[in-house]
Amino acid sequence: MEKDTETIIGPSVKVEGDFHGEGSIVVEGQVTGTLKTNQDLKIGANAKIKADLEAENIYISGEVVGDLYVKGKTELKSTAKVTGNIKTKIISIEAGASLNGNCVCDQNGTMELKEDTQKPKSRSGKNDKSDIL
User: pTM for the complete prediction?
Assistant: First the structure.
């Protein structure tokens, strides 16, 4: 994926707000808000994310607080810590990874991803995920 990476959010970078990209994105820093791409999204081991994520495929090694909407594959590496709901086609969870939330896997690929009309959820650090995807 690295050779096709369009955007890298480095370890010293903090992004707040809505971040939308067309190409693959690697996050090694901090993101708060929403993060969307039409291609792959890789969350590095030291990254801290408080955002809803949407991508073709997502590979997580760091910490994510937020909901994931994935058209293809979601991979949680052994160092991953995810608090939020996941909606994906395929999921892979390595031993040692942490997932606190609900997961819906739709192998038929008929699921609808997040609507842009939904209200953004609070990122106050509290688990306010009372509504399930």
Answer: 0.79
